[in-house]
Design brief:
Blueprint: H1 2-33
């Protein structure tokens, strides 16, 4: 159970990190274009 929870937490953190990265890249590209 502990391993499953740990895996879920890691997966969630990875997805969150990717979303934040895409968001920051999008904002940077948008500012660069305008």
């Amino acid at each position: 159970m502990l391993d499953l929870t740990n895996c879920t937490f890691l997966c969630f953190s990875l997805v969150w990190f990717v979303l934040l990265d895409l968001k920051s890249r999008g904002v940077r590209s948008f500012c660069h274009l305008s």
